[in-house]
Every structure is written in C-alpha cells, then in structure tokens.
Amino acid sequence: MSSNANEQVRVPRIAVLASGSGTNLQALLDATVCGTVSAEVAVVVSDRAQAGALQRAAAAGVATVLLPLADRRDPVVRETYDRRLAVVTGAFEPNLIVLAGWMLILGPRFLNTFPGRIVNVHPALLPDGEGAEVLTSYGCLPALRGARTVRDALRQRLPATGATVHYVTNAVDCGPVILREEVPILPDDDEVQLHERIKIVEHRLLPRAVAMALAAVSA
Ligand code: GRF
User: Fold this and answer.
1) Pairing of strands 160-167, 118-122
2) Which residue, judged by its Cα, is nearest atom 7 of ligand 1?
3) Which atom of ligand 1 is nearest to the CA of 199?
4) pTM over 0.85
5) Which residues lie across from 127 on neighbouring strands?
6) Which end of the chain, N or C, is surrounded by fewer C-beta atoms within 10 Å?
7) Confidence class for position 191, pLDDT limits 50, 70, 90
8) 27 neighbors 206 (Cβ within 8 angstroms)
9) Which phi and psi (to 5°) does residue 164 adopt?
C-alpha cells in the first residue's frame, strides 16, 4: 500500500487536554464508540495528577500523559511548559486538539504549533471575536470569559447563560464559534446546579462540534 493510501484510511486522531473530572472527555469517548464522531482519542494530557479525566482515559484504554506546571506565574517556566506540551501532544500526531476543561491558558508556543486545530468548550455564551456582548434570544447579554463564568452569570443576575464550543486563538475565549446553546437561569439556581445543567448541554454540543471541526481540518 502506498503512503498516500495509508493516509486515506487513517482514522482521525484527537488529543484531549483536560484538568478536571472529565465528563466532557467521557462524552467525546462515548461519541467515538457509538460512531457519532468518526475518530479516535489518541491521548489525554492533564496538568493535574488527580484529574478524573486521566482515570476515564485509562478506563477507555487511551494513552495518558501527566504534565504538571511547576509555577504558572513564571513566564520562563510557562514558555518551557508550552513547548513541552506541544512536543508531547504532537508526538501523537493529532488532527484536532480538544480542550475539555483545560484550566491553563496556552501561549503562542503551543497555539502556533497547531493553528486552526484547537477547540475549547466554555461554560458560557461567547460571540465570534472579542466583543463584550453576545446576542441571545433574551437580547444582548455580557460575554462571560475566564474561569468563573458560572458564578459571574449568577452574580450578574442574567436571565440565561449557556455553553459554547469555539476555535482557540491567541485572544483568550475569543475564537470563532462552532456551536453555542443557551441555558436559562432558574430562580433557585446555585453555582453547582447551574453548572450541572450547562454541562448537560456541553456533553451534547462537544461531540457535534468536534465532528464539524474534524470535517473542516480534513477538507
Ligand atoms: C466544563 O464546564 C468546561 O466547560 C469548563 O470546565 C468544565 C470541565 O468539566 N472549562 P469536566 O472536567 O469535563 O467534567
């Protein structure tokens, strides 16, 4: 078989970066098993030894890599980390990289290694680009960026929040949107309850968005 023919039959490969419990990873793993996503998860990388994502990956027979970050405030340590992360991830030859609850901001060293091939799931509604607002069925609402968006949505007494899957660019939480869905905020919601309802939506959106992104990168 020629190398071209080999390339044609190769199942697309996904690298997942995850810091947390890994329920989004699980949704993706399940989608690859049931065929909604025609790809394999080739590796799961985590910065946290206790991440549930690592256990889920191991249970599914997926390779795992633990890469802790020594000091997130030291720019030299951060750059070295990004370079190592790019090498480790690249060794698995991924077609797509999925940030599924990855809690570290990635620098240009990593992002420029995989241009247009990184997607992120975010627990809030985001617009395309750097705008401060996002148009929803409730009118324009603030675009919530960063790591505390569920709390922010409650504190700002918004009528709704949601989930967004988007491409990752150098501007944090500002890349082109692949899929987005609203989640209404209920009068008695606390942070845990609201986040759980957002995650239900994330688990539905992420596999669909990954399938769309895979189609785009292989087009
Ligand atoms: C998700 O809500 C994701 O959007 C956010 O972190 C959470 C990760 O959850 N970035 P899990 O680890 O996939 O359960």
Assistant:
1) antiparallel
2) 101
3) 2
4) yes
5) none
6) C
7) very high
8) yes
9) -135, 135
Q: With a 6 A CB cut-off, is 197 part of the ligand 1 pocket?
A: no
Helix (H, G, I), strand (E, B) or coil at 3: helix
The active-site residue, picked from 122, 166, 195, 203, is 122
Does the beta carbon of 149 sit less than 6 angstroms from any atom of ligand 1? Answer: no
Q: What is the pLDDT of residues 42-92, one digit of tens each?
A: 999 999 999 999 999 999 999 999 999 988 889 999 999 999 999 999 999
Alpha carbon separation from 1 to 4, 6, 93 (Å, rounded): 8, 7, 20
Q: What's the CATH architecture for 13-123+162-182+190-218?
A: 3-Layer(aba) Sandwich (3.40)
- pLDDT band at residue 4, thresholds of 50, 70 and 90? low
Question: Locate tokens 């989640």: which residue?
Answer: 183
Per-residue DSSP letter, 168: -
166 catalytic, yes or no? no
Is-contact 77 104, C-beta < 8 A?
A: no
Instruction: Identify the three-state secondary structure at position 158.
Output: coil
* pLDDT tens digits, 91-143: 999 999 999 999 999 999 999 999 999 999 999 999 999 999 999 999 999 99
Residue 42's CB is within 10 A of a number of other CB atoms, namely: 19
86's CB contacts (< 8 A; 6+ apart) are 109, 110, 113, 114
